[in-house]
Amino acid sequence: MITLPEPPRLTTPSTRVRLSYLVGEQADMIHRGSDTEWLAAASQDFDGFVADRVGVRERWGVPSEVFWYVSGDYYLGTLVVRHQLIEGEVGGHIGYHVVYPWQRRGHATAMLREGLGKLPELGIDRALLTVATDNLASQTVIERNGGVEDGVNQDGEVRFWIDISK
Ligand SMILES: CC(C)(COP(=O)(O)OP(=O)(O)OC[C@H]1O[C@@H](n2cnc3c(N)ncnc32)[C@H](O)[C@@H]1OP(=O)(O)O)[C@@H](O)C(=O)NCCC(=O)NCCS
């Protein structure tokens, strides 16, 4: 296994991790059986791709910010912080993924912990996370961060609340 140069941290998207981002996301898309088409444009103009992801932007109709989980030149995953809940509370305050080559090493658990730390400054002291009923991996990640289950949303996803006021 690759030894990371330093503990990974949530960072602003940056062209520094171009290669590991593209290769990591491509591996992840292939593993998930998802569309890889968007990677063609990203690889042709990575500067523009990154510029579109920096800062607080309106996404899904609410202000949100994208962070990349990075150690040195290695990109491991993405976490999105929504400053407000989307109508119907679909998606929750935080969404995330760790790319396939870096899964099962505790990165999502640590990444979510760091992401939750960004919410108090936004005036959020109770975070909603929503997960597909069959996504036991993500449910474990949320529970390891103090998530308490609270029924399902309109899309049939499991809702979890995490109290971050403590
Ligand atoms: C869910 C996801 C973020 C987990 O990332 P990760 O970095 O592998 O998670 P962790 O290493 O922190 O795993 C924590 C625990 O979750 C469980 N887990 C993680 N991946 C698992 C898998 N593929 N199968 C079964 N359990 C799994 C394990 O109990 C694991 O702890 P362990 O390795 O000590 O047994 C990652 O699989 C992913 O990005 N999936 C696709 C996107 C997604 O589901 N995002 C979340 C949407 S709500």
Overview of the molecule:
- The relative contact order is 0.15.
- The protein has 166 residues and is an alpha+beta fold.
- The radius of gyration is 16 Å and the shape is globular.
- β3 and β4 form a beta hairpin.
- The protein has a single domain, classed as Aminopeptidase (3-Layer(aba) Sandwich), CATH 3.40.630.30.
- The chain has five helices and eight strands.
- The mean pLDDT is 97.
- Strands 1, 2, 3, 4 and 5 form a five-stranded antiparallel β-sheet that branches. Strands 6-8-7 form a three-stranded antiparallel β-sheet, covered by helices on one side.
- Bound molecules: coenzyme A.
- Coenzyme A (COA) binds next to β5, α4 and α5.
Notable traits:
three-stranded antiparallel sheet; binds coenzyme A; alpha+beta; GNAT_dom; globular; Putative acetyltransferase; 166 residues; 29% strand; 28% helix; five-stranded antiparallel sheet; Aminopeptidase; Acyl_CoA_acyltransferase; single chain
In terms of topology, how is this protein built?
Layout: E1 9-11, H1 18-32, H2 38-44, H3 46-51, E2 56-59, E3 62-71, E4 74-82, E5 94-98, H4 107-116, E6 126-131, H5 136-143, E7 148-152, E8 158-163
The protein binds coenzyme A (COA).
Residues 96-98, 103-109, 131, 135-138, 140-141 line the site of coenzyme A (COA).
